[in-house]
Design goal:
The structure holds 2 protein chains of 2 kinds. By secondary structure, chain A is an alpha/beta fold. Chain A contains 14 helices and 18 strands. Chain A has a 5-stranded parallel sheet with strand order 4-3-2-5-6, sandwiched between helices. A 5-stranded parallel sheet of chain A has the order 16-15-14-17-18. In chain A, strands 10-9-8-11 form a 4-stranded parallel sheet. In chain A, strand 3, helix 3 and strand 4 form a beta-alpha-beta unit. In chain A, helix 2 crosses helix 5 and helix 6 runs parallel beside helix 8. Chain B is of the alpha/beta class. In chain B, 31% of the residues lie in helices and 19% in strands. In chain B, strand 6 and strand 7 form a beta hairpin. The longest helix of chain B is centred in the middle third of the chain and has 10 residues. Classes of the chains: A alpha/beta, B alpha/beta.
């Protein structure tokens, strides 16, 4: 039977050919918790007297959402994660290591794996050709202790990409465009599978950005084939042995096929307060911006920082617009530092913070004031997301964000890109 | 499972009610359900936590519970005293979480457009029927598979597992 990527990975785990709609119990290869959802999972396991990890080396507890801790209650929550790691042998990813989804692709997830994580953007790892999906604390707790979970085999929407991006247009513009097209629930219960020549030509950083936001269309995961670029990415990290080729079968059956010619896209933003409230940058020009935030599991990678730095280099932020830059992981921070990117940001008037989720989740480090407007490279612009229900969040690419930091308002990034 | 019938006052919302507004991350400083309940729906319905009465019913449009995987969202709704959430559709992580923590939910397309805040609503989980007793209108909902109903009736997955282990 010809299978989609999702069906292929789940079938390999189930030991039989699975069909969409089927509910199966499957082993999981990697399980993950973070400091927002982890304490509840650990409490559940303690109450059941099941404080154990089925596969400690692939059970990872991330302290990233409130890192370093801004409150004693969260410090105590962090202590429960550290204690669980000590007691079970699970891996602890400390405050200095970075955002869980970036750390998972760097060090823990391999093509063909099934990953469940108690964070909705767990779908990011799908870019490696892994079936990775977000669940709640209880589901992941059971997965940690037993090494198993239950899944409904999803239908797949194929996103067939052709052409290449024109200047000033990036993967972020594509995913915002796509979510605007299919809506915040356009892929609910389904997998998104990105393919075609446009996808094959993409760098891993672009694939991560796309897979990361699958959940913003309601998707269960966002998948890419594991190919030569995936292999190179793993080899660079000393993980060449983890590579496995993963491709969908010719003739696999899809719930829907959406074709997009990348060359037709333009810089795109999401307006407050939903991700699918998208429009072209040209339709949002002149919107005042009080704060620009560049970072997160969506766009806090080295390639993103390079794009932003190239626009900001030798220039100054607008005096009324503050700029916060948060590298997604320690590796990215070190490389960005080595390349001089962090110095470029500082020279342009940015605040460069330590690694982690930073301002995105609205717990600390960039909470907005009443009526303030933030343009951010993150994946969500929900009301109250950045700590204040009276504030407004726009989503954009790192290039559009950097240009807005210079202009103090939403502008076309193509006017700010140096040739 | 028989006897899972709820009657209460409706609180009606539109589509795409996300978990950030159900329980904002800035209040996730505790796992105590009662404390979480005090902030429930705060960012879209400021005095919900003060107004809600035990047994009340949330009625919403499509994609209820989209966004973050935080299980504290259904926990906060349940601890606030809400008996049941009826929505046109649910985001998938919220759906799993609600079942797992024992919050009764029902997929009922169309109900949110017809039911007004303040109406008295009757929800029969077993039959999958939602009735607006104020207007007299009735809506057919999707019935859950038996095993999911058992988990909800047990008060959640952990209680269900505990019962199975006995």
């Amino acid at each position: 039977m010809a299978s989609t990527l999702a069906e292929k990975i789940i079938s390999a785990h189930a030991g039989k050919d699975v069909k969409p709609g089927e509910i199966i119990v499957t082993g999981v290869d990697v399980t993950a918790l973070q400091d927002g959802t982890g304490p509840l999972a650990i409490q559940q396991l303690e109450e059941l007297d099941m404080v154990r990890a089925h596969n400690p080396a692939k059970t990872v507890l991330f302290i990233d959402h409130a890192a370093p801790s801004p409150r004693k209650e969260l410090s105590n929550a962090h202590m429960s994660l550290r204690r669980f790691a000590r007691e079970t042998g699970a891996v602890l990813s400390e405050i200095s290591e970075g955002v869980c989804h970036q750390r998972l692709v760097e060090s823990f997830v391999s093509p063909g794996d099934i990953l469940i994580g108690a964070d909705s953007h767990t779908c990011t790892s799908g870019a490696l050709g892994a079936f990775s999906t977000g669940m709640g604390s209880t589901d992941v707790a059971i997965g940690i202790a037993t090494g198993k979970t239950w899944l409904k085999v999803p239908e797949t929407i194929r996103i067939e990409l052709t052409g290449s991006f024109s200047k000033g247009v990036y993967a972020k513009d594509l995913i915002l465009h796509l979510i605007g097209m299919i809506g915040a629930d356009g892929a609910t219960y389904m997998a998104l599978e990105f393919g075609g020549p446009g996808a094959e030509a993409m760098e891993m950083s672009e694939r991560f950005t796309l897979a990361n936001m699958a959940v913003e269309a309601g998707g269960k995961t966002g998948l890419f084939a594991a190919d030569s670029r995936t292999r190179a990415y793993l080899e660079e990290r000393g993980r060449g042995d983890d590579f496995r080729e993963m491709t969908p079968d010719e003739g696999a059956s899809y719930a829907r096929i959406i074709e997009i010619d990348l060359s037709t896209l333009e810089p795109t933003v999401s307006a407050p307060h939903t991700v699918d409230n998208t429009r072209k940058v040209s339709e949002a020009l002149g919107t005042r911006v009080d704060q620009v935030f560049i970072g997160t599991c969506t766009n806090g990678r080295l390639e993103d920082l390079r794009v932003a730095a190239s626009i900001l280099e030798g220039r100054q932020r607008h005096p009324d617009t503050r700029l916060i830059v948060t590298p997604a992981s320690r590796d990215i921070y070190r490389q960005a530092s080595g390349e001089g990117l962090l110095a470029t940001f500082a020279a342009a008037g940015a605040l460069v913070t330590g690694v982690g989720c930073g301002a995105c989740v609205g717990v600390h480090g960039g909470i907005l004031g009443d009526g303030e407007v933030c343009l951010a490279t993150q994946n969500r612009n929900f009301q109250g997301r950045m700590g204040n229900a009276e504030a407004f969040i726009w989503l954009a690419s790192p290039a559009t964000a950097a240009a807005a930091a210079l202009a103090g308002e939403i502008v076309d990034p193509r006017d700010y890109i140096k040739d | 499972m028989s006897g899972m019938v709820f009657e209460g006052t409706a609180h009606t919302y539109g589509r795409d009610v996300d978990t950030d507004v159900i329980i904002p991350a800035r209040y996730l400083n505790t796992t105590d359900p009662d404390e979480l309940a005090g902030y429930c729906m705060m960012d879209i319905d400021g005095d919900f936590a003060q107004r809600v009465q035990p047994g009340d019913i949330i009625v919403a449009g499509e994609n209820f519970g989209c966004g973050s995987s935080r299980e504290q969202a259904p926990v906060a709704i349940k601890a606030a005293g809400v008996a049941c959430v009826v929505a046109s559709s649910f985001a998938r992580i919220f759906f799993r979480n609600a079942i797992n923590i024992g919050l009764p939910i029902l997929v009922c397309p169309g109900a949110s457009e017809e039911i007004d805040t303040g109406d008295t609503v009757r929800v029969d989980m077993e039959q999958g029927v939602v009735t607006d007793l104020t207007s007299g209108k009735s809506f057919q909902a999707e019935r859950f598979p038996e095993f999911m109903q058992e988990i909800v009736a047990a008060g959640g997955l952990m209680n269900h597992v505990r019962e199975q282990l006995k």
